């Protein structure tokens, strides 16, 4: 696990350390705008994958890779931004299987996973990963504070060591003060307490937004 200055820095480090210039990055179409900007700023080529009610359709990946090439898949399976779609458990298993067959590394952006408002929590793709092919990116920006600038990337040890080396050359490490604050917040139980509180407010905001739309 590497602590980073927000999830976007994780994408930046991955682009610098693991991908070649003009590499092809597969992503949902549409996808989170600022993540796309990171890849574009690193001179990556983006290739959009279609979505339906169940989110990204993994069955199209082999044909897309054959036609356009693919070095990496970037996906937001839980509460996709901007569509809000949640990938089903069956599709997650299918995506894991196809990425394994194609030797296609996956970045899972799970910024919103802890904000499930209805039903039991959904498992991240990383929970099904037995090959070490998924880089799992998380952040406290959506659940605690964007200004804290604390995120993380979890993956195979050699990959994390490579990313950590690049990060050290870039900024000498994330803020120690922010990390201490985050550690205190998590270990004291305040994180779960705050999560319960903001879920209540988010449900109210969602229901009011739906009422206005209707």
Overall pLDDT metric: 94
The main pleated sheet reads as: 7 strands, mixed
Distance between the termini: 44 Å
Structural class: alpha/beta
Strand order within the widest sheet? Answer: 1-9-8-7-6-2-3
Shape: globular
- Summed up, the helix count is 7
Order of helix and strand elements from N to C terminus: EHEHEEEHEHEEEHHH
SS strand fraction: 15-25%
Low-pLDDT residue spans? none
Radius of gyration: 17 Å
Helix content: 40-55%
How many strand elements? 9
What attributes does this structure have?
seven-stranded mixed beta sheet, globular, alpha/beta, single chain, 214 residues
Protein model, in words:
With 214 residues, the chain is an alpha/beta fold. The chain is 43% helix and 16% strand. The chain is built from 7 helices and 9 strands. The strands form 2 sheets. The chain has a 7-stranded mixed beta sheet with strand order 1-9-8-7-6-2-3, with helices on both faces. A hairpin with a 2-residue loop joins strand 4 and strand 5 (55-56). It is globular and about 45 Å long.
């Amino acid at each position: 696990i590497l602590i980073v200055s927000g999830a976007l820095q994780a994408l930046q480090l991955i682009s610098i350390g693991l991908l070649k210039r003009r590499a092809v990055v597969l992503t949902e179409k549409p996808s989170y705008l600022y993540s796309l900007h990171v890849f574009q700023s690193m001179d990556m080529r983006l290739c959009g994958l279609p979505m339906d009610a169940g989110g990204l359709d993994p069955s199209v990946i082999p044909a897309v890779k054959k036609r356009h090439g693919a070095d990496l898949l970037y996906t937001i399976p839980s509460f996709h931004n901007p569509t809000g779609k949640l990938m089903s458990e069956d599709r997650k298993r299918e995506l894991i299987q196809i990425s394994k067959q194609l030797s296609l590394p996956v970045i899972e952006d799970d910024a919103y996973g802890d904000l499930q408002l209805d039903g039991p929590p959904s498992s991240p793709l990383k929970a099904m990963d037995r090959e070490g092919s998924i880089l799992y990116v998380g952040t406290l920006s959506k659940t605690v504070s964007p200004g804290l600038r604390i995120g993380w990337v979890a993956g195979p040890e050699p990959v994390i060591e490579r990313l950590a080396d690049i990060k050290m050359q870039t900024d000498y490490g994330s803020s120690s003060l922010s990390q201490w604050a985050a550690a205190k917040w998590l270990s004291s139980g305040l994180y779960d307490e705050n999560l319960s509180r903001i879920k209540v407010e988010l449900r109210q905001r969602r229901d009011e937004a739906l009422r206005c739309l209707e």
